[in-house]
Amino acid sequence: MHTLAQLKSGQLAGCKRLQLAEDLTEFPREIFTLADSLEILDISNNQLSELPDDLHQLHQLKIIFASNNRFEHLPESLGQCPQLEMIGFKSNQIKQVSSASLPLQTRWLILTDNQIEQLPARMGELHRLQKLALAGNQLTSLPESMEGCRNLELVRLSANRLSTVPDWLLNLPKLAWLAFSGNEFSHVEHSENSTVLTLDPSQYQLAEVLGQGASGIIYRAQLTQGEQINEVAVKVFKGGITSDGYPSDELNCCLTTGEHPNLIKVLGQVDQADQLALVMELIPPQFTNLGLPPSLQSCTRDTFVEGTQFSPKQILSIAQQMADTLAHMHQQGVSHGDIYAHNILMNLHSDILFGDFGAATNLNKLSTGQQQAMQAIEVRAFGCLLDDLLGQVTTGQPELKANLSEVAKACMNENMAQRPSFAAILTQLHQYR
């Protein structure tokens, strides 16, 4: 974090990344003194509602974040910035997005949690667009021109007012991570899963925080049931809309999916007006994250701790378990939406646990053809995961590595009709040793 005083004194001369959060109501003109170096500008958590018309003077600017401000329209000056390719205006009050506000070179557009009712037809001209986050708006449709966004890989459309999922969206050749729960066409009432107990918050005592995500906070807790006291994990959902949609939809998808050996076991749910929570088995401490989330540079692909290596045999084991898990999920009519190494936990024996249903979607109201298309989209995500793991492979077992590479290639085929199903992938993987 930087200060306005530092900027005005010239202490930040030559800096490439600037972050200012001081309840600003006007864009500081002093930022232009960094025009020859500034690549990333973060002015989130201020009181801004306008950007200057001459923003393009920041000719090195590639990334701008302006979340949690007071913008009511996406500033048109963004469209004139010659190198700007990542735009984040989450949690404003944006109602209007004009065609002039979108640079043609845009790769990453985040407009989550605003009040947007319509997108401009020019969206279809954003041929480099890879990542599009629009959850928590008031969209009733998408421009058909977006069929031209052939490089789209990740799309978030949850918690809008869409009446259907367009077929052109389901057929985009590189789409791998899609979420659209909380829309009229996909809404399914809460699962009546009788195997999951409904609990009262008074039955558990929260202890330290174990982790935190977009939709909630996970705590270690003690669960009391009769005379039994057990150590558990409790995910307490945040209120409102997350980057992936409504917490209630995450809860619903988790319960609809049911049990599987590679899914974190759900012991109970809390479904009250003032609290939504999942009570889960406590994950043994020997399980650690398989990867790290995508970076600003990798955009949609996972990253790994430097020096991370996997043997082809480990990758085969991970792939078999994941294919089986995803086949199970789609049999229950649920897509995960976030198939990534950073959502997978693994121990030293290559046993995995898969979690984080924040971007999951209940598919049970879709047609059979649409459900098959959603599986094909997730198969591509599985292929990307396999490809990322193979990028960290150790030497040895060249034949197995080559076989796994062929599976990844088939899963990422841009002709969706030629991608295998998860059941077929699992059969193929079980032939390898």
TrEMBL record:
**What are the record keywords, sorted?**
ATP-binding, Kinase, Leucine-rich repeat, Nucleotide-binding, Repeat, Transferase
The cross-references to PROSITE patterns, in alphabetical order and at most eight, read: LRR, PROTEIN_KINASE_ATP, PROTEIN_KINASE_DOM
Per UniProt, ATP binds at: 235
Please tell me whether the keyword Nucleus is annotated for this protein.
Answer: no
Q: Which SMART domains match?
A: LRR_BAC, LRR_TYP
Pfam families for this protein = LRR_1, LRR_8, Pkinase
Please provide, alphabetically and separated by semicolons, the GO molecular function terms listed in this UniProt record. kinase activity
The protein's superkingdom reads Bacteria
**Kinase as UniProt keyword:** yes
Provide the Protein kinase domain boundaries: 204-433
Question: In the record, what lineage is assigned to the organism producing the protein?
Answer: Bacteria, Pseudomonadati, Pseudomonadota, Gammaproteobacteria, Alteromonadales
Which CDD domains did the record assign?
PKc
What Gene3D superfamilies does the record tag this protein with? Phosphorylase Kinase, domain 1, Ribonuclease Inhibitor, Transferase(Phosphotransferase) domain 1
- What is this protein called in UniProt? Protein kinase
* SUPFAM superfamilies per UniProt: L domain-like, Protein kinase-like (PK-like)
